[in-house]
């Protein structure tokens, strides 16, 4: 993600001033016309700015718009996040994603990770010293996209420039 609205500080190369984070698609499936947003991370200087809304808006637009509109014509986008990451969940909801499920014990994560949702270690576990993660699954499908989410998200993007 590149923020084209900021002017680099004196002595700072433009690439360092503009780099705002990363976003992409993962688990893309052409046969099923679906993809997941990820990896996704907004760097701290750009958090709580227009950058996240714009990045999600652009990636949703490209994925869910029909090929005649310049998009991929996917039917479904997924957004997965840690159940403890309330901020990420709010961003997804604000941009039109809807809660579908919580996948319990979905991921194995290192034990030194900051957030482990209070999930206890399991005595005798096959992967000792690791924690589990519960994952929130959210989705945005073509019918919601075409029924108003697209316009709402484009309006949010306009307001945040």
Explain how this protein is built.
The protein has helices at 14-18, 50-64, 86-94, 142-159, and strands spanning 21-29, 34-42, 76-82, 98-110, 130-141. It is 29% helix and 31% strand. It has one domain: Aminopeptidase (3-Layer(aba) Sandwich), CATH 3.40.630.30. With 161 residues, it is of the alpha+beta class. α2 (50-64) runs antiparallel to α4 (142-159). The chain has 4 helices and 5 strands; from the N terminus they run αββαβαββα. It has a 5-stranded mixed sheet. This is N-acetyltransferase domain-containing protein.
What fraction, in percent, of the residue positions are helical?
25-40%
Query: How many helices does DSSP assign?
Result: 4
Overall structural class, as computed from helix and strand content, comes to: alpha+beta
The largest sheet is:
5 strands, mixed
* Beta strand count: 5
Q: Name the average pLDDT.
A: 87
**In terms of per-residue confidence, which ranges show pLDDT below 50 for 5 or more consecutive residues?**
none
Strand adjacency order, main sheet = 1-2-3-5-4
Radius of gyration: 18 Å
Number of domains: 1
Distance between the termini: 15 Å
GO molecular function: protein N-terminal-serine acetyltransferase activity; protein-N-terminal-alanine acetyltransferase activity
Protein name: N-acetyltransferase domain-containing protein
Pfam family, one: Acetyltransf_3
Domain N-acetyltransferase: 19-98
């Amino acid at each position: 993600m590149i923020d084209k609205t900021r002017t680099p500080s004196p002595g700072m190369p433009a690439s360092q001033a503009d780099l705002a984070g990363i976003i992409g698609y993962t688990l893309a499936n052409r046969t099923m016309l679906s993809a997941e947003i990820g990896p996704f991370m907004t760097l701290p200087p750009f958090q709580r700015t227009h950058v996240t809304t714009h990045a999600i808006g652009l990636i949703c637009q490209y994925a869910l718009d029909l090929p005649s509109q310049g998009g991929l014509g996917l039917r479904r986008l997924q957004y997965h996040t840690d159940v403890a990451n309330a901020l990420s969940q709010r961003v997804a909801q604000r941009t039109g994603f809807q809660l579908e499920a919580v996948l319990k014990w979905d991921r194995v994560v290192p034990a030194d990770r900051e957030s482990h949702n209070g999930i206890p270690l399991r005595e005798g576990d096959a992967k000792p010293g690791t924690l589990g993660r519960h994952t929130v699954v959210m989705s945005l499908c073509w019918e919601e996209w075409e029924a108003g989410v697209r316009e709402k998200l484009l309006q949010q993007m306009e307001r945040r420039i």
